[in-house]
Amino acid sequence: MQEAVSKTTTVGLVTGDYVVLAADKRATAGPMVYHKAVKKISKITDYAALTISGLVADAQYIVENARYIAREYEIEIGRPIPIKALASRISLILSVYLRYSPFIVQLLLGGRDNTGASLYYMDLYGSVTREKYMATGSGSPVAFGILEKNYRSDLSLEEAKKLAFSAVSSAIMRDGFSGEGVDIVVIGPGVYSEETIPLKKTIESF
Predict the structure, then answer these.
(1) Domains of the chain
(2) How far apart are CA 121 and CA 124, in angstroms?
(3) How far is Cα 176 from Cα 62, in angstroms, rounded to an integer?
(4) In whole angstroms, what is the distance from residue 133 CA to residue 152 CA?
(5) Please, are residues 73 and 85 in contact by the beta-carbon 8 Å criterion?
(6) Is 115 a catalytic residue?
């Protein structure tokens, strides 16, 4: 039996004091569509979220560990864990398991702490980099093209959401492993919001 794989398109971008994350909703197992309503953006805390692509079981394990790390830090230290520190702890888990049983994942961690909004990319090797924008998954080449052409550091929040939607929806049209709709998460000062945009909805009407 083939394991469900989140061959997918996820994107993240930072604009001002906000992080916008977006992802499609399709999971596959080999050539088959396994599920059409998968959530590929997982809430870690009220100020951080993780996008996932790769093996679903591996990604779920990382998400649960990230939640535990964040809770443990807040209990022991008495304040929310910085996004950079959370990214470092997640990358450590990835690198420790690499030699024995690597997690087949690509991750984007977006969030906001007292230093501002930030976005971190992590791969199965445990590499971690801070980015202004990034895309992962099977549809990422298309999504990157959209982001590179249209990203600006001074985007308004609404422009950033439209760009994230455009990047994912464009990839969906060209990548058979991505599909169904686009989930969007916005994290900012006192804000954690989620919404799902149906695929049939155009960028102009969004």
Answers:
(1) 5-198 (3.60.20.10)
(2) 11
(3) 26
(4) 10
(5) yes
(6) no
pLDDT of residue 198: 80
Task: Give residue-wise pLDDT tens across range 51-71.
Answer: 988 888 898 999 999 999 999
Note whether 105 and 89 are within 8 A (CB): no
Pairwise CA distance, residues 91 & 126, whole Å: 4
CB 86 within 8 A of CB 66: yes
Look up residue 12 and give its amino acid.
Answer: G
Q: How many residues does the chain have?
A: 206
pLDDT at 78: 95
pTM for the whole thing? 0.88
Six-digit token pair at 204? 């102009």
Catalytic residue among 8, 10, 15, 28: 8
Exposure class string for 124-157: b at 16+ Cβ within 10 A, else e: bebebeeeebbbbbbbbebbbebbeeebeeebee
Rounded (5°) CA angle 159-163-166: 135
